[in-house]
Amino acid sequence: MRLINIKNISIISFIVAVMICFCNVAFAEEAVSTYEISDLSITVDIPESITVLTPKVKENEEFFKNGMFDYIQTMSKFRDNNDVLYGKDWRGSVEFEISVIPNEDKINNLTTVSAQKQEKLLDEMSKQNDVMNISLYSTENALFIESSKSVTMIQGITFSKEYFTVYDNKNITIKLSSYNTSLTSEQLAIVKNVADSFRIPEKKPLVLSEVISKSEVFLFVTLIASFVVIVIYKIKSAKEPKEKKTNSAEQSSIKKENDKQNIADEKINSEPQQAQISENSENSQISEKQSAEEDIKSSDSDEFFEEEHYDIDLEAAIANFEEHTERKSRNTRKKK
Question: What is the tally of structural domains in the chain?
């Protein structure tokens, strides 16, 4: 029986180990392309073995001519699934999707919410019928809810691996699907690596020059606003005395016109009264004259005049009585 040379075995083992190491390095360093997710400025690295399309793809491009993608189906993915990235591997055995939709639970960032809310969301998602297993998965830049799903349809069963997170009030899902065949470990590694490459844009600290510039702009705007307020106040203050003076002159003019009108009205009203007084005075004189004549006549017949004893001039008596009456009327008018 021929013995195996131990030295040869050692050499062969060393060669195999080196080859395995090189294979692992080659697999780990598979070429990737960086893509930006929507308008969130989030980037992910996707292996070049996955052909990725964006919503801006045109119908006449080579992807649709070679039969790898169907244009109508691809547009449906973008429209109905809210995909921002959609792709397939070179064999067409798996589909890769990244979708973005608004968050309805008012969660801004899954990483920053409380542990209670994270567990509540995890519990709600686990109750979905197609979920097989679910758990939290944390990376350097984000916190994901990792889940495996199995969906039965008319065409068959769809197996998928999903990484779900929330950032800037947006639900972001990284998904890899296979039809009628469970996902292999290599395929599961692909979608996991994409989740690991999930990068959120860093907030750049303000540079001193930017701070000074913003301060100067704020100061300038404040000065302009103050100047405008002062000008408006001056204009308004200048108008108020003129308006008061104008109003005073108008009121004085109106008062004078009213006084004139009142004097005219009093004059008009007094004329009929004076005419009535004059008429009443004349009537009174006539009445007194008539009364005197009657008294004289009565005296002539009864008491004062007896033809056989006195010879009095009647006309002289009437004249004296008229003179007396005239003096009395003048005195009455003077008193009034």
Answer: 2
Report pLDDT digits (tens) over 188-243: 999 999 999 999 887 654 444 444 555 666 777 777 887 787 878 778 777 666 55
Q: Is 150 helix (H, G, I), strand (E, B) or coil?
A: strand
Tokens 């907030």 belong to residue: 203
The amino acid that residue 79 corresponds to is: R
Alpha-carbon distance 58 to 286, whole Å?
Answer: 126
Q: Is 131 exposed, middle or buried (0-12, 13-18, 19+ CB in 10 A)?
A: middle
Q: Are residues 53 and 171 in the same domain?
A: yes
189: exposed, middle or buried (Cβ count in 10 Å: 0-12, 13-18, 19+) = middle
pLDDT in tens, 255-265: 777 777 777 77
* DSSP bridge pairs for 46: 33
* C-alpha atoms less than 13 angstroms from C-alpha of 158 in its C-beta half-sphere: 15
Identity (one letter) of the amino acid at 73?
A: Q
Determine if residue 180 is left, alpha or beta; phi over 0 gives left, psi from -120 to 50 gives alpha, anything else beta: left
User: CB-based contacts of 198: which residues, under 8 Å, 6+ apart?
Assistant: 42, 44, 139, 141, 142, 144, 165, 174
Q: Show which of 171, 196, 221 is a domain's final residue.
A: 196
Domain-ending residue, one of 141, 169, 196: 196
Task: Return the DSSP state at 317.
Answer: H
% helix, strand, coil for the chain, step of 5? 55, 20, 25
Rounded to whole angstroms, the Cα distance separating 222 from 238 reads 24
Q: Is the overall model pTM greater than 0.70, yes or no?
A: no
* Dist CA 75 CA 56 (whole Å): 10
Note the pLDDT of residue 145: 95
Residue 194 C-alpha from the chain's centroid? 40
